[in-house]
Amino acid sequence: MARKHKLDSETGRLWDRLSERHPEYPEPRKILILAAYRRYREKFGSRLVSDADLREHLEQLFQDKGAKQGYAVAMNLRDALRVLWGDDVGAQVTHHVRDIQPRTKVSLKSEWDAVRGAADHLPAAWRAPFIDFAARCETDPPDDVLSPFTLKGMAEALTAFARFRDGGTSSPLTGSELMRYATHLDDAGVWVSGVLSALTKVYMCYTHILSPGFRSKACQTVLRDLKGRARTAGPCRKTPEQIVPASLVYRTGLNMIAEAQIGSSHDMKAATLCRNGLLLTIAAAVPLRRRALASLDLATSFRLEERPGIQIDIAGRFLKTRQGRKNYERYQAHVSSTVLWEAVEVWVQRFRPMFDNGTALFPSGRTHGEALVADALGQTFGDTTEARLGMRVPIHRIRDCVATECIEEVEHGAGWAPHLLGHKNAQTTTESYDHATGVTVSREFGQLMAARRSDPEDLLL
Questions:
Q1: Which InterPro entries does the record cross-reference, listed alphabetically (predicted)?
Q2: Does the reported pTM lie above 0.70?
């Protein structure tokens, strides 16, 4: 209050309105907002100027103070004008700043570009037929069409096989050679399921691309033997410390969103903090694969309905399913969570417009108007968990965390877990995703973190 007595009547009223509307704002932030408004008032007086004059003023801010400082002052001015003349004026400022702020131009690669990039590493004799087959799958799909994700994996597996062969491409594939390659991978420490995956992709390269119609009973015998060994050995066990309670990841995301709201200024740093927190929360609430998460869009696939409902509807091309089913299969779910609904609303109203005027749920901070691509989204998730939890949790591992906590903590959880993960076969969940020991070990740490948040948790994981 002592500081308020030093203000003139107009800035004093602005101070009061800020305190009333945003009691969570610390005093230093309100001081910065008032400073930005004083600069505006020195130029225009106590009136709302035209949209053209407002843009000119913002452009001058960036010119005088540089991109970083100019952005910070513009966001403080936005908060002042929004309190004085409404949210629409604040949205005008955000829109202009988004256009004025310099952006790094980055050209995005498509999934098919990634396939061609992987094929470029193949020996010349294999490269041409592989790229030709990929082009046909992209433009004129054959009956044996394969997804770009599958083709990229096949190209990488075939490249490794070519190195094993020392670049030889002329000799046909035999069962004995496939067995020698399996032994080579096993000696290199590759888990038996990884060996099976690599050899299957190499065999598919021959049957689909290098020698269409090729079949080898000897090769099929090797693959059947590996499949039996892989079933006996089970899936490769993930690092135990990466299996944390999914509820911990969920709460950590909510804490980050709250932290973004009470920060000293709503700038891109706060917006990015909010986005990353929302990513953690939604990944724990809706345990999808990273490609499906990266596709979420506020206008189509992730829509807020009447509180507390959220409707999710993801097209098949973003799902892990056979290429021929992608045109008609969908992932559809309805989430009912007041906490999650309010977190998304805060993101949409306060922070999402700072990135661009698009509708991607997780926008890119580098590429204006684009969403975070799947790889970047996975990198962001891993970096955020490492920074916040002290351990790096890969984004696909959150599915393990959800399944394990569901099986361990929820009544009849073993029956619910396959539905949460979208598995048609419950055995997949119990064999590959149940790590009850890992989550039990981390329970004490999870309880410590949970105690930092007093809000009841209304999301059933």
A1: DNA_brk_join_enz (IPR011010), Integrase-like_cat_sf (IPR013762)
A2: no
